[in-house]
Amino acid sequence: MGETAEGALPGIDAATTRACLAAPFGVPVELFPDLYLVRVPLPHNPLKALNSYLVLSDDRTTIVDVGFNHPACEEALDRALAALGRTWDGVEIVLTHSHPDHTGNLDRIYRDGMAVLANLHSFQEVENLQDMEAHVFDPLLLKAATPHQSGLCFEKGKPTLHVSAELLPLKNQPAVTFLREGDVHRAGPYAFEVLETPGHDPWHICLYEPSLKALIAGDHVLERITPSIASWFPAYNALEEFLTSLGKVRDLDVARVLPAHGAMFGDLRGRVMQLIEHHEDRLQEIYDLVAEGHDDIVSISSHAKWRYDNWREWPLDQKFFSMGETMAHLIYLVCEGKLKQTICGDEYRFELP
Ligand SMILES: [Zn+2]
Ligand SMILES: [Zn+2]
């Protein structure tokens, strides 16, 4: 089912959709009985806000995604709980994936005994992957940096990306209850089916509630933003996983997509098809660049088309994201046999077979 003639979602009128986008941070907007959207600010981040979803049970409050490790994020959830007459007692956290805008606040809000549920066994898994990735992207960042580029720092003579405190991995690593494909998580009057949807993040899940025909989509499908897909290892074909995960949600009976950023929307299938098309175009473009003779990540990334020109002058963190994205497409093409990759030391080279 798509949007109605007025552009409203079935069950959620246009006024509610607008109210969600305009709601002050920390003020709950009721979407369905006992299910609320709460906007959590993401300071200094282009995404601006995270949509947390709160579900009220008699003895429990479920919060889906919690924001950065930043006082403003903690404050927003404090306010929301108070407005709903709840306290931190009996709060359980469900995480759609590992990214810091969804998990970082755990370092602030975690209390002893709080249940944390996600599709990961331990936050150590996330840290391990980040450490491994750094071996690939550190040399690339050094190569991509212009002289005096801010954002690069050196530790023991080794270049690393200097990220703000909010982007660092969790300091405290609370125990996690593993959510897997097919699990049904009950909260309030609802039964959320867990769908594993890796791609944007290896640990990504969506939550499908059939009686509401609603999908809590995390960052898997967003209304306007194209979720970033990055990979740094030839062994990890993130784009293929993402496309498979898109196919998995495409035909669900969904009337309302509840995304982690931006507005709710109705036409899930239409949006999925747009995203698939976007990546097909991108694959062709990256292939053409290699065919023209661009053979390394920095050269390919800097010649690809992006929303902003003048790649060489971009901030380093933006170069980092664009190179991860480019790599994900190159790896996909290599796995399909359309490109050949050679690795010499920390140099990755791509050419036609
Ligand atoms: Zn994310
Ligand atoms: Zn996000």
UniProtKB/TrEMBL annotation:
Q: Does the keyword Hydrolase apply?
A: yes
Q: Which GO terms describe its molecular function?
A: hydrolase activity
Q: What are the record keywords, sorted?
A: Hydrolase
| Domain (Metallo-beta-lactamase): residue spans on this chain | 49-261
Q: Name one Pfam family in it.
A: Lactamase_B
The signal peptide here is none
Matching InterPro entries: Metallo-B-lactamas, RibonucZ/Hydroxyglut_hydro, Sec-metab_biosynth-thioest, WH-like_DNA-bd_sf
Q: Which domain of life is it from?
A: Bacteria
Descriptive protein name: MBL fold metallo-hydrolase
Q: Which organism is it from?
A: Gordonibacter massiliensis (ex Traore et al. 2017)
